[in-house]
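Write out this protein's structure.
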Amino acid sequence: MKHPELEELKTQTEYWKKKLSQIENENIRFKNRLMKILQTEIPRSKLDALDYFHTRFIQLDELITLLKHEVIEQLGVIADNITDTPAGMEHILLTHQRLETKLLILHDKFGHLQREFDMYVRQWF
């Protein structure tokens, strides 16, 4: 039994996959920017803050990797179309809602980190 919602869920999940790749690329851009700063003469007093940003970028990479894995798993479940029972469709919908929440949190965290890093760089470099 095919549910009409599955195509919409698949489309949204594919969008999330692309969005995660965009965030991943932006995070790479920030790490490269940080690397360029670290290659210059910087005061020792700024090293702690730069280390903080470096750690946050790495943590963001780890979170992106985990979410990409979950998104790919969800796409596989949708493609398998395991919805012969109401429980199967309910599982897909619950997983989808959880993923959506995680992605919103990631987006907020990334936006905050982005603003924080940009402000720090503008202020000190």
